[in-house]
Automatic annotation (TrEMBL):
Domain Acyl-CoA dehydrogenase/oxidase N-terminal span(s) in chain numbering: 8-122
Gene3D superfamilies referenced in this protein's UniProt entry, alphabetically: Acyl-CoA dehydrogenase/oxidase, N-terminal domain, Butyryl-CoA Dehydrogenase, subunit A, domain 2, Butyryl-CoA Dehydrogenase, subunit A, domain 3
Family: Belongs to the acyl-CoA dehydrogenase family.
Cellular component GO terms held in the UniProt record: plasma membrane
Protein name: Acyl-CoA dehydrogenase
SUPFAM superfamilies on file: Acyl-CoA dehydrogenase C-terminal domain-like, Acyl-CoA dehydrogenase NM domain-like
Cofactor: FAD
Keyword Flavoprotein attributed: yes
Residues annotated as domain Acyl-CoA oxidase/dehydrogenase middle: 128-222
PROSITE patterns in alphabetical order: ACYL_COA_DH_1
The keyword Oxidoreductase belongs to this UniProt entry's keyword annotation: yes
């Protein structure tokens, strides 16, 4: 792994640091945690997304023609590290920016690209992704929401669940079954759906920590224009698994985010009970263990990024890194809550203890990621 930065990348870093220091406020930093996010905070973050977009910092990895900077892999790495360490809020459309936008760039019409992408970047429109169903979570090919062609429309009927921001979204990248007789992977299509269409019902889901970041979404004979098709008919699996990604150094956020959390935890330990926790050898041992594991995670992430730089296969290392990230995050959350409980800044560690249960599920379950590691890294057979 060679991460020596050319002069132009260091200039990119300096420009970003300077801009963040001038524009990122303590109020915005405090708003970055999703817990208990009010409508007023949501709108503050929407305005922040627009500020970043207007300054050219909202989607540096996107091509210039879509409002990005066409950043190189090393520039993306620098961007991810610097924004995470500065504690800048993630985009409200983080799933849209990372997952949906690349698919629109590859498969969308010119009208879809020029109309939808700028508004997504600014968070003028909020996006959700309709994949998971009550009986088709990680197994996308088992989805049953159907779309039947009727003249110039598809008539959509079915249900999605665990849809991030589904009750706040203006648009949905929706995966539906358009050919029930085809093999599971080959009868799926992707639609770009206006969430204001008649027949769509979104119900917020309350998670363990009281947040309502997810929703279940019902489609009751929703008439979706046929030109909302993204990619070829019955080619939705290809859209969902497209290898096109302008975000090639996002793995850096895994270790940078955990490092920030560890620093915050140590700061809280120093404040509570006159810093007694930092005199306890057992707690210090746990902190040291987590710190070393975060460093190992950094190496794993850099291996994935290095593979991208040198034409290798980053998927195996990235999948292993995601698994390790989830496990470290849960252990850090457990340590924080065991020592601080509901104390600390705004009781954030109690909230993190609850929300951390999702770390080994979101973005690909640990079981699936371990299968990828077994096959792509260790070369083990599928059965």
């Amino acid at each position: 792994m060679d991460f020596s930065y050319p002069a132009e990348v260091e200039r990119f870093r300096d420009e970003l640091r300077s801009w963040l220091s001038e524009n990122l406020t303590e109020e915005l930093i405090a708003a970055r945690r999703p817990s208990g996010r009010s409508d007023a905070v949501f709108e503050k973050l929407r305005a922040w997304n627009a500020t970043m977009a207007d300054a050219g910092w909202a989607a540096v990895s996107w091509p210039c023609e879509y409002g990005g900077r066409g950043a190189t892999v090393l520039e993306q790495l620098v961007y991810t590290e610097e924004t995470t360490r500065a504690r800048a809020p993630l985009p409200l459309n983080v799933i849209g920016m990372n997952n949906i936008a690349p698919a629109i760039m590859q498969y969308g019409t010119e009208s879809q690209k020029t109309t939808l992408l700028p508004r997504m970047m600014r968070a003028d429109d909020i996006w959700c992704q309709g994949m998971s169903e009550p009986e088709a979570g990680s197994d996308l090919a088992a989805l049953r929401t159907k779309a039947v062609r009727d003249g110039d429309h598809f008539v959509v009927t079915g249900q999605k669940i665990w849809t991030s921001l589904g009750h706040q979204a203006n648009w949905c990248q929706l995966y539906v079954r358009t050919d029930p007789d085809a093999p599971k992977h080959k009868g799926i299509s992707c639609l770009i759906v206006d969430m204001s269409l008649p027949g769509i019902e979104a119900r917020p889901l309350v998670t363990l920590n009281g947040d309502t970041d997810f929703a279940e979404v019902f489609f009751h004979d929703v008439r979706v224009p046929a030109d909302a098709l993204l990619g070829p008919l019955n080619g939705g699996w290809r859209v969902a698994t497209t290898t096109l990604s302008h975000e090639r150094a996002g793995a850096a956020r895994l270790y940078a985010e955990l490092q920030v959390r560890l620093e915050e935890l140590v700061a809280d330990f120093a404040e509570v009970d006159s810093g007694d926790a930092l005199e306890d050898p057992v707690i210090l041992r746990h902190l040291g263990d987590i710190s070393v594991r975060i460093k190992y995670l950094e190496v794993l992430c850099q291996r994935a990024i290095s593979a991208t730089l040198h034409g290798g296969d980053p998927l195996g290392s990235a999948s292993l890194a995601k698994t390790v990230w989830g496990e470290i995050g849960q252990d850090l959350a457990a340590l924080a809550f065991d020592v601080l409980g509901t104390r600390g800044v705004h009781g954030r560690w109690a909230d993190y203890r609850l929300s951390s249960r999702a770390l080994t599920i979101a973005g690909g379950t640990s079981q699936i990621n371990k299968n990828i590691t077994a096959q792509r890294v260790l070369g083990l057979p599928r059965s």
